Amino acid sequence: MAPVQRPENIATMINGVELYNPDNVSVLEAYLNEQCEKGEYDLEANLAILKLCQFNTALSKEPVIIKILIKALTAIPAPDFNLCLYLLAEQDLESIKKLTELQQLLEQARYTQFWKADLAPWKEAVPSFETDIRKVITRVIAMSYQTISTSALEANLGLSGDAFDAYCKEQQWEKNGDVVQIPVNKDNEAKTVVIRENIKFEQLTKVIGYSNEM
Question: Which end of the chain is more exposed for a tag (fewer CB within 10 A), N or C?
Fold first, then answer.
């Protein structure tokens, strides 16, 4: 996801006393729409919308809440989604419950079940939703595996056929029949662990003494 390029007027709105000015909500919502269109993400600006809605419930709009939560999902494993939920504690919307279920699937790495869910409403709200989530899953896989079965990887990514082959090529993953090889990196590389135990001389003499008595 593209790094935050926060406009100066937005930075002013989410800092200091302007944070609580309800007149700013329309500008912040427009900025949220821009994030969704351009594949960018600004957590602080989105949280500012939710804070305004907390103090001015009439400003709360379900489509806006949905977009904020979807963008937060694409930031997993960061705790952004839970930060948003905290500010939505008074909201009892079915959409929040469904997105929370998706969050749990992602955090538990149950990716196959995630792709089986109805994602159409969220993709309609944020067109890049599936692509952004696939990037989240890709990072986890690259950190966890050096080799993985083709079928498992297809299920985890929600891709198959030519789309799957093209994605592997884009990631520089080598497909060899039923197995996909992932380049070694600092996260998936096997590391030798050396365990050292400090034994005092007094303890050693006791052990020797016990062995002599046997």
Answer: C
